[in-house]
C-alpha cells in the first residue's frame, strides 16, 4: 500500500475571507459545510460567488450540505509549493457532493490503491490556527 | 469589411531563454527593430499597438502605455489583451478589428514576457479555494483533467509521448528554441519522466522562459499598395471565454474550442481535413489531444487513435508545432502562445528552413488561457491563416 500524506501537519494559513464568503468560514467553526443555494435557479453552487451562476440573481441563501459525495476526479501532488513542500505525496480531488456541486479538497485516510473515481466519501475537518476549519474528505467505509 | 481584409506583412521573434538577463523592453525593442528592418516601414508609421499581457508587466496597470512610451510609439489605438495564453492570437484578431474599423492603419502586435527572470504576478480569483489544498496550479489542474479523461475514455500514454517526441524533434531544428530543451527524446523518456501531479509527468509540462515576438499588420489593400508580395491573412477566428459557465457540474473533457473551432472553420470555409499544419497552444501534451477532438479532427474520446494514425513531424501528414511548441521550445510567459502563432506565420511565409512544411495552403493556431476552479481552461481561441500574394 502506498501511504499518502494526510497534510494535517501542513501549517496552512487561514484563507483571506472576502465579505461575501464570511458565512462559509464562520460555519466551519461549528463543523458545518455551507453551500450557496440559488433560489431562482433552484440549485446549489460552489465555489461561493456574488450571484447565482445560473440565474445572475443575488437571491442566494446559505444551506448546510450533507457532507457526502463521490470522487469526480483526482490527482496525486508529487511536487508542491510552501507550505506544502516536503509533505508530498498527497491527494487532491474534485468531489461531487450529493447536492450537485463539485468541490476541491484533500482526501485523507486513503491509500493510493484505494482511490478511485466514483468512490463514496464523507466530510472531515482540519483545524486552522484562527479557529476556522478546512473541509477535507475521507472514504465513507 | 472582414477579418480576411487584414494582412500580416512581417513577423519577428527572439530566442527563447530561461532566466535571461535581458529586460522585457529590450526584447520588445529587438522585435520592433527587426520588423522595421524587414519591411522598411518607419517607426512613425506605426499607429496601433496591441499587446499580450505579461507576467513581467503584471504589476503595472499601465502596461501598454508604458511600453509605447519606452519604444516612443505615437498611437491612435493602444491596448493590452489579457486572455492568458489566448492573448497573442486574440491580440492579432483585435489588431484586424482596429484596422477594419479605421482606428489604425499599421498595427504592431507585440508579445513580450520575461516571466522566468522577472515575474510580478499577483492574482485575485479562484485560487482562494485552491491554495488551501496544496494545488500546484496548472499541473494539478491537468492532473485532474487527465484522470477524468482516462476514466471516461481510456488513455494510451504512449500516444501522448508520440506528440512530445514530434515536438521535441522540431525544437532540435529550431535555433530560437531554448537550448536546454534541444535534445531529442523518445517515447520511453516521456513515459519514464517523473510524475509531478499524476498522471502529469515532467515531459508533459512547459518550462517557463523569457522571450518576445511580434507581427506587423495592415489592410490587404495597404499591403498591396506598399508592394508586400508575401503576406499572411487570417481567414477564420473563434473565441470563447468560459464554457458552460452557468452549469455546476460539467464534462471537463469538453472545452471552449468546440464552439470557437466551429466558428473559425465556418468563417474560413474549411474543415479539419483541409488543415495543412497544426499549431495548437501546448501548455500540457494532453491539451493538444483534447484540441484535436474539440476541433473535429476526430471524435471526442478518439484522440489516441487519431494520434496513432498520423505523422506529426514537419514532413508528416499533419505537422504539429513545427517550432517545438512551448513544451519543447520553452514558454515565454504570457507571450508563450505567440510562438505557436509566429511559427504558423513563418511556415506560411515559407521561412521554416530545416523544418519547413511542404503544404503551406493554410495553418491553424489556437490559444488556451487561464485555469478556472475545477474545470479545464477559461479561454479558447482558434485562428486559421492562409498565405496571400
Overview of the molecule:
The complex is a heterodimer of chains A (141) and B (389). In chain A, 5% of the residues lie in helices and 37% in strands. Chain A is mostly beta strands and 141 residues long. Chain A has a single domain, classed as OB fold (Dihydrolipoamide Acetyltransferase, E2P) (Beta Barrel). Chain A is globular and about 45 Å long. The mean pLDDT of chain A is 95. By secondary structure, chain B is of the alpha/beta class. Helix content of chain B is 33%, strand content 18%. Chain B contains twelve helices and eleven strands. In chain B, strands 1-7-4-2-3 form a five-stranded mixed β-sheet, sandwiched between helices. A four-stranded mixed β-sheet of chain B has the order 8-11-10-9. A two-stranded antiparallel sheet of chain B has the order 5-6. In chain B, a hairpin with a 2-residue loop joins β5 (195-197) and β6. The longest helix of chain B has 16 residues, at 24-39. The two termini of chain B are 19 Å apart. Classes of the chains: A mainly beta (141), B alpha/beta (389). Chains A and B meet through β2, β4, β5 and β6 of A and α4 and β5 of B.
Distance between the termini of chain B: 19 Å
CATH topology of the largest domain in chain B: Peroxisomal Thiolase, Chain A, domain 1
Order of neighbouring strands in the sheet with most strands of chain A: 6-5-4-7-8
Q: What proportion of the residues of chain B form beta strands (DSSP E)?
A: 15-25%
Number of strands of chain A: 8
Main sheet record of chain A: 5 strands, antiparallel
Number of strands of chain B: 11
Fraction of helical residues of chain B:
25-40%
Please give the share of residues in helix of chain A: under 10%
Task: Give the class-level CATH name of the largest domain in chain B.
Answer: Alpha Beta
Helix/strand order of chain A, N-terminal first: HEEEEEEEE
Query: What is the total domain count of chain A?
Result: 1
